[in-house]
Amino acid sequence: MIWNEARECMSRDEMSNLQSARLRKEVSRVYHNVEPYRKKMQEAGLEPGDISGIEDIEKLPFTTKDDLRDNYPFGLFAVPLSEIVRIHASSGTTGKATVVGYTRKDIDVWAECVARCCAMAGLGRNDIIQVAYGYGLFTGGLGGHYGAEHLGATVVPMSTGNTQKLIDMMIDFGATGLMCTPSYLMHIAEVIEERGLKDKIKLKATLNGAEPWTENMRRQIEERLGIEAHDIYGLSEIMGPGVATDCHFHRGLHIFEDHFYPEIVDPKTLKPVPDGETGELVITTLTKEGIPMIRYRTKDLTSITHEKCECGRTTARISRFKGRSDDMLIIRGVNVFPSQVETALLTVDGITPNYQIIVDRVNHQDTLAILVEVEERFFSDEIKELENLQKKIEHAVHQAIGLHAKIKLVEPKTIERSMGKAVRVIDKRKLD
Amino acid sequence: MFIKQLTVFIENRAGRLEQVTQILKDNNINIVSVSLADTSDYGLLRLILSDPDKAVTVLKDAGLSAMTTNVIAVKLTQHVGKLGELLAILSDAGVNVEYMYGLTSGDENASIVLKTSDQNKALDVINASTFELLTTEETYSMND
How far is B65 from chain A (nearest CA, A)? Predict the structure, then answer.
């Protein structure tokens, strides 16, 4: 079912016109209300009048996570704080979180976009949808919640952390929809299988995102649960979940171009690449009031097509993500920058030990271990002292990234060095 | 007086223990007593050696994590309850035992190695008691 036919099935000409009109307004708004953007544009010798439509978008400067960090917390907001009704935050490269703000209208647009995603998955007002993304600063929980509510479905705010309860309620309530990460869904599928409950569940569709997953994984999940699983994409800098989702044909994710203008650029030259070629996804928000983003570099690598889809939608489709152009990891749905771990280690002792981050996947759950080489300054003859050190490190890492890592002490010089530089991250996960 | 104990960090992997014993052998260092404390991921090898200063140098040069710690070696006459007596004096003085292991055992006497929460106090307390401490000369040359 198409939630918003007017917007999702517009002709390409109409869409371009709409985007151009919106871009002109957005550029003017940020120029007049967001000092860092105005400075950037002035430095590039640009004025709002220089942007007559989307064909001029390449004239505009890019925005990166660093800009958000440098203007922490509210420096990029385009409205006074009294207009901001919601704050969300996600991981930043350094200690500071990436903070975003929403006006009431932004919240409404967000809900409408997520409703479009739910409808794309075949869900509607007669469905019971469990939202099993974390509720809190993370955009997944509340984003999924408001969207499913806008759709008119019966929303069950499960959040994460209690799989037993999730499954019990899934069966008892007859839930037909579920929103959660793909790895969590795999785990749920396993538990359901183990407990022989497949016949008791009425699940028909799921919306899964916040981490990369493969076609193969999707098919496995669908077979095991007898459902249709959809990929939902989003990022807090742009909005949250609901920027794009795939339809029943699963040939790429429809991006809601009336709100988010996509470009694919070469990550090195930053010049646009033709449709079908892989590059970095750059998104410009067209309707955001709270914290508009002009040409935000997502660091996600993908390709795009503007061909009309068999489902009838004309919105451009981005392919399954092929990786990232930076070193960010996604572990259990949480964004983690290796530099955050390094900073955390520094706080424990004042000096960073030789360490290595090992990410793996066991029983469909991401695991995180940090190897730390024993060094003279903290070596002890008492196991108690070494264990205290491990606990301190674990605590510091948890404070920094919100995840529990297993801290493993290893002998000196055992962490591989390549060309003298330590290999900081080993990701053993084979996404299959 | 204190006795120097060697502590070596070794991962729970094959061959790690052998590497240590090989290095000691190559440097003609005798192991007087040994204890291995294990955790799930690593072990702490505690050694009383004939030449602890040389040992710590050669082990570190080989890339191992090694250090020396001051421990106390106490002689215990072979009577049932002797160890309990020693522990009582220590606990009365508010000294806790962090770890201990056997050093020697003979017909008349045995001896143990102790690490406590307050090594200086432990020394004072034992010196003031009827218990005898072993000297470094005695200890390092044992079993030679």
Answer: 7
- Interface predicted TM-score (ipTM): 0.89
Mean pLDDT of A227-255: 96
B63 and A412 within 8 Å at the Cβ level: the answer is: yes
pLDDT tens for each residue of A294-309: 999 999 999 999 999 9
B113 forms beta bridges with B73, B101
A125 in contact with chain B, both atoms CB, cutoff 8 A: no
The string of pLDDT tens digits covering residues A58-93 is: 999 999 999 999 999 999 999 999 999 999 998 766
Could you please report the per-residue DSSP string of B96-133?
Answer: PEEEEEEEEE-SSEEEEEEEES-HHHHHHHHHTSS-EE
Residues of B with a Cβ under 8 Å from any A Cβ are: 5, 7, 9-11, 16, 37, 39, 41-42, 44, 46, 63-65, 67, 69, 98-99, 115
- Both A125 and A171 in a single domain? yes
What span, in angstroms and rounded, lies between the C-alpha atoms of B122 and B72? 8
Q: Do strands B109-116 and B65-77 pair parallel, antiparallel, or not at all (unpaired)? A: antiparallel
Which residue from B minimizes the CA distance to A371? B41
Residues A368 and A342 in one domain: yes
Q: Which domain holds residue A147?
A: 5-325
Distance CA A128, CA B75 (A): 76
Distance CA B13, CA A385 (A): 22
CB B113 within 8 A of CB B72: yes
Shared domain check, A49 and A82:
yes
* pLDDT score for A12: 95
**Which of A282-294 are b and which e, b meaning 16 or more Cβ less than 10 Å from the residue's Cβ?**
bbbbbbbbbbbbb
CA-based nearest residue to A235, from A280, A276, A267: A280
Nearest C-alpha of chain B: how many angstroms from A393? 16
**Number of other residues whose CB lies within 10 A of the CB of residue B24:** 22
> Between residues B142 and A80, which one has the greater pLDDT?
A80
* Domain limit, last residue, from A325, A360, A380: A325
- Same domain assignment for residues A185 and A312: yes
Task: Give dist(CA B123, CA B117) in Å, integer.
Answer: 12
Please indicate whether, in this complex, the C-beta atoms of B44 and A381 are within 8 angstroms of each other: yes
d(CA B42, CA A291): 50
Mutate to test the interface with B, among A375, A380, A381, A407 (most CBs of B within 10 A): A381
CB B69 within 8 A of CB B5: yes
